[in-house]
Amino acid sequence: MSAINTPTYMRLRDQVRADIVSGIWQLGSHVTLAELASHYEVSANPVREALLQLQGEGVIAMRMNRGAVIPLVDAKYIDNLYRLRGVVQSMLVRGAARVASAEQIEIMVALASDYEAAAGASDVAASVEANRALHRHIDVMGDNPLAVDLLQGRSTLADAFRRSVGYGAGRLDLAVAQHREVVKAIANRDEDAASIAMLAHTDSSRQDLLAMCKQLQS
Q1: Could you tell me where the beta strands, DSSP code E, fall in the chain?
Q2: ∠ CA(143), CA(132), CA(90), 5° rounding?
Q3: What is the pTM of this model?
Q4: Helix (H, G, I), strand (E, B), or coil: what is residue 68?
Q5: Per-residue model confidence as pLDDT tens digits over 4-37
Q6: 3-state helix/strand/coil string of 20-67
Q7: Tens-digit pLDDT profile for residues 159-193
Q8: In angstroms, rounded to a whole number, what is the distance separating the alpha carbons of residues 134 and 96?
Q9: Cβ–Cβ < 8 Å for 97, 88
Q10: SS3 69
């Protein structure tokens, strides 16, 4: 969970979000307040507050007196999300290229290296986690908190889906190459190149996930 001085419901919110990605709470499942309170060893009140925040992010759907449902992710959801993500992240990466500090760029390079290590090991779980860390860092560098918040909750469901279905052939290697293009453009302060590279990256992610959806249906 988050830092110990963070309110319980906020720490719980972050942990539930992480546990949805890891598959502890599966897409399409229904969880009750009692189940969550028992699992996390807390009272019902912080659970309720955490769920309300997650509902606001689009991560779960509350059910009156019945807890929450974690939505299923289908091809339409993926298509809509990644088209939105492409627009928002191509905007954010322009800001990153424009205002990122030397320290932020150094951290970005290290996070990209972490992703390459996970991808090189074909570790799906580690790749999903490292990818999210890298993209969130780049998004935050763009200095638009409203846009970052818009992406966060929806990214939880996409990451949970990605972790459950894995990657298509060659996807990890392509993502590594695309990350390098994005990182290089930001480091060079080239807003246009960064935006173009990010849009290409999100669109190829969309296409790979849609192909995975099609495989599940066949």
Answers
A1: 30-31, 61-63, 67-69
A2: 45
A3: 0.89
A4: strand
A5: 567 888 999 999 999 999 999 999 999 999 999 9
A6: HHHCCCCCCCEECHHHHHHHHCCCHHHHHHHHHHHHHHCCCEEECCCE
A7: 999 999 999 999 999 999 999 999 999 999 999 99
A8: 13
A9: no
A10: strand
